[in-house]
Amino acid sequence: MTTTVTLTGTGVPIPSPGRAGAGVLVRYGRIALQFDAGRATVLRLTEAGTGLHELSALFVTHVHSDHVIGLPDLVMGRWIQDHVWRTGPLDIHLPEGEAVGFAERMLDPYKSDIALRMEHVQSVPPELRLHPFACSARPREVWSRDGVTVEAVAVHHEPVPDAVAYRVRTPDGTVVISGDTRVCEEVEELSRGADVLVHEACRTTALHAAMAGTPFEKIFSYHADTVALGGLAERAGVAHLVLTHLIPAPEDEAGEAEFASDVRSGGYRGRITVGGDLMTATMG
Ligand SMILES: [Zn+2]
Ligand SMILES: [Zn+2]
């Protein structure tokens, strides 16, 4: 069997052509795991050939709108089509704290829509099947089925609380998904020997002088500097580094090459992919 890792979105809050909001899909046979649901995740999943009814579970990294704005869309979409597929509600795994509050409230604006649909087609309301877990500095298993496991570890995206990275192990290999974080030891440890590391990327070092004194300086301070990330990936022995959540979004191939050259200058010698939507890495 093979495991596929597909980027369902490589963008950030500021819109950029062709880049949906944050999201990664990991598939192993009939198991389909979605990490985050940013802008247009539903559309990208459909384009990737994965129906909403096929998702086994969804995992939230943290509550920033660019990572969760597509979550009500996904839950409503799965509910609306469930008279066809009858797969039932989606299991949503998320850190305790803000993410739970967000998820509990996210369908409130659709109350009248839900009531109308229930008078018309749907027989039951959408069920939110939330599975909160405590953030921890050491990896803890949050999901497993048929030889596939998912672990979570707390990362450093302060001042945002309760942000996590995930590690997925399948019989084919290991993939780590950073979520949003500064370059940190927790992700380095989690990524030791990983086949694929999907990491957020920010050109902090390269743009340091230009951003000084602007609001971008604060934004860059809680994201992962591409040069330091190259050092992390090399020390951890990552085979394939996939950059996503690109800050600032590159406008052409030359701009993409700059991300890769930052990572090389940080010391990484493995395979680099500067992510684009629907790019897929394969293991096994
Ligand atoms: Zn983000
Ligand atoms: Zn964030």
What is the chain-wise order of helices and strands?
A: EEEHEHHHEHHEEEEEHEHHHEHEE
CATH topology: Metallo-beta-lactamase, Chain A
Overall tally of structural domains: 1
> Which ligands are bound?
zinc ion
What is the fourth-level CATH superfamily? Answer: Ribonuclease Z/Hydroxyacylglutathione hydrolase-like
Global geometry:
globular
* Classification by helices and strands: alpha/beta
**Proportion of residues in extended strands:** 25-35%
Distance between the termini: 7 Å
Biggest pleated-sheet summary: 7 strands, mixed
How would you describe what is shown here?
The protein is an alpha/beta fold. It has one domain: Ribonuclease Z/Hydroxyacylglutathione hydrolase-like (Metallo-beta-lactamase, Chain A), CATH 3.60.15. 31% of the residues lie in helices and 28% in strands. It contains eleven helices and 14 strands. A seven-stranded mixed β-sheet has the order 6-5-4-3-2-1-14. A seven-stranded mixed β-sheet has the order 7-8-9-10-11-12-13. Helix 7 links the parallel strand 10 and strand 11. Helix 10 crosses helix 11. It starts with a strand and ends with a strand. The model has no long low-confidence stretch (mean pLDDT 97). The site of one zinc ion has 7 residues, from helix 2. One zinc ion (ZN) binds next to loops.
